[in-house]
Structures are given as structure tokens and as C-alpha cells.
Amino acid sequence: MNKLNGLILTGGRSTRMGRDKSTMIYHRKPQREHLTDLLIPYCDAVFWSVNAEQAIDITTPDQPVIIDAFVLPGPLNGILSAFQFDPSAAWLVVACDMPLLSAQSLTALVEGRNLAKMATVFYDSDGQLPEPLLGIYEPAFGPILHQAFLKGAFSPRQILRQNDIQLLNVPDSSELANVNDPAAKAALGL
User: Fold this and answer.
1) Where does Mg(2+) bind (predicted)?
2) pLDDT tens digit sequence for 67-84
3) 10 in a known ligand binding site
């Protein structure tokens, strides 16, 4: 089995939130640190996927980061950059704006992992489409993602839909909630 690295996607612009979503405090610490703690039991190493501006501000010297290597918006940049950094690893990808994520879903994801598929992901909160921001991307999927990007595809969800992947039912769909603006954060009560 390939090594499994964790990748916390933090490189977005957070324009709707008005501040870096990865530094929001939900569990008495910045969200990116909370997610790191959640992923450590499942992964060989946990990386923060950051943009160039964020990389300047990170003051945690022992926290490994992967700086976005491509000029494109969205989470595909972080995932492609991770495969460029280590193409032989599988990547357990988590978006930084899922504050309700727990070990329950991570355990279900890792236990449901199908190594014969390109990726293992949950159905989204509507139960219809793959959720690209919480999943395991196998090493064989790296070149496919890169080729899709070169052909102008930028949506990880669409790329997943076009390939042989393992789809799982999430134990609790509320854990997939993305908190992207102050109103959504306030609604959580965290």
C-alpha cells in the first residue's frame, strides 16, 4: 500500500469570509491545526496546502507546507501541487472549511478506501455527486488530474465523475458542511 499523506486545503482566497478560513477558531485552535490533529492518526505526514501569500505568514517551522505550484483558482491547484511534490503518495484531501468533520467520517473514508480505484470519496451532502474536498486520491490519479488540467478542466468534482472512483455514504452528512461566510459561521454556533 502506498503511503498516505494528509493534505489540508487552505490556499483559497476566503473572499466571502473576509479572512483566512484556515485560521478561524472552532475547536479552541485554528481550524488548520485542528484538522492536522484529526488527520495525524491516519496519515504518514500532514501538509498544509497554501498559496504564496500564506506561506510567508506561517510561523510554525515544523509544519510541512506545499505551496501552490500552478496558476489557477480553486482546490485543484492544491491537489495538483501535492502530486507534483510527491507523485508516489496517496493524498487524503480535506478542505479547511469543514469545521464539523470528525474522526467518524475519516475512519469511514479510510476503511472504505478502494486501492483499485483512482479515488475514494463520499457522496456530497445531497447524496448525488462526489464530494471532492474530502477524499483519498491514489497516486495513479495524479497524472489524470494533470492531463485534465492541461485540457482546461478545473473542477475536481467533474474530473472525479469522469473516472473510476469509489463512492461511499458519509456517516453524518452534516460533517460535509462548508462554512464560507460569516453568516454560515454564526449559524454553527461554534
Assistant:
1) 97
2) 999 988 789 999 999 999
3) yes
